[in-house]
Amino acid sequence: MASPLLTIRGVETFYGKIQALKGIDLDVNEGEIVTLIGSNGAGKSTLMMTICGTPRCRTGSIRFGEADITQTPTHEIIRLGIAQSPEGRRIFPRMSVLENLQMGAAVTDPKYFDEDLARAFKTFPILEKRQSQRGGTLSGGEQQMLAIARALMARPRLLLLDEPSLGLAPLIVKQIFEVIRELNAKQGLTVFLVEQNAFHALKLAHRAYVMVNGRITMSGTGSQLLASPEIRAAYLEGGAH
């Protein structure tokens, strides 16, 4: 049985008086791909940001491995081995591709840099060709690749991916999901994926959760949820997206 890497219990998060997360219980085990699906505004990105400490949850606890990180500062959470590729890519547009990757590596021992850079370029060959180009001049798909590669430069034990397929062409989406699968299969990387593209996410995931209005309403294996008539109606057949 894989040991839990991320354990979330009873987490409630507020923006002022508005409650965004309502008692979230969720686990990500070592070596798994776990996905969280739900419609826009369900609270998925808020959970991602709460894991990283901004905003802080008002009640509940978040554990990463042996450490309770509920009140840990964000920069220390990153040093513990959680890296996030945030929604909307958020690369540094004025910096070159190489400089963006250097920023990702800032929390790790410099002795690994060349090895990690070579791995990033092997994972996303286009970035090697574009390494001196400014991030802001890349296509949407290339920016997403850069955002993931930058997160990988931090040598994470847990990779948080927030809407990696957002706004991308279907062919690029397929490519991004294939890379996620390979990172997990070949490097044993644990991945927690928030995604509106339920079909791709559930096909990829070992386990999955569904979030509706700040609550977890269903969980199971990716294939169980893919086969669920409720999920198919809501997320896979042009229903409520």
Please give a structural write-up.
The chain is α/β, with parallel strands linked by helices. It folds into two domains: 1-81 and 158-241, P-loop containing nucleotide triphosphate hydrolases (Rossmann fold), CATH 3.40.50.300; 91-155, no CATH class. The protein is 38% helix and 27% strand. The strands form two sheets. A six-stranded mixed sheet has the order 6-7-8-3-9-10, sandwiched between helices. The chain has a four-stranded antiparallel sheet with strand order 2-1-4-5, with helices on one face. Helix 3 packs parallel to helix 6 (140-152). The two termini are 34 Å apart.
SSE arrangement:
Blueprint lengths: L3 E12 L2 E12 L3 E5 L6 H8 L7 E6 L2 E2 L5 H7 L1 E4 L11 H8 L8 H11 L1 H5 L10 H13 L5 E5 L7 H18 L2 E5 L3 H7 L2 E6 L2 E7 H6 L1 H8 L5
Parallel strand pairs: 3-8, 3-9, 6-7, 7-8
Antiparallel strand pairs: 1-2, 1-4, 4-5, 9-10
Helix pairs in contact: 3-6
Unreliable segments of 5+ consecutive residues? none
How many helices does DSSP assign? 10
Helix-strand makeup class: alpha/beta
The portion of residues assigned to helices is 25-40%
Question: Which architecture of the largest domain does the CATH hierarchy give at level 2?
Answer: 3-Layer(aba) Sandwich
Question: Roughly how many Å is the radius of gyration?
Answer: 17 Å
Largest sheet: 6 strands, mixed
Q: Which CATH class of the largest domain?
A: Alpha Beta
Overall geometry: globular
Strand order of the largest sheet: 6-7-8-3-9-10
SSE succession: EEEHEEHEHHHHEHEHEEHH
Mean pLDDT: 93
Number of separate strands: 10
Give the number of domains: 2
CATH topology of the largest domain: Rossmann fold
Report how far apart the termini are: 34 Å
CATH superfamily of the largest domain: P-loop containing nucleotide triphosphate hydrolases
Q: Which band does the percent of strand residues land in? A: 25-35%
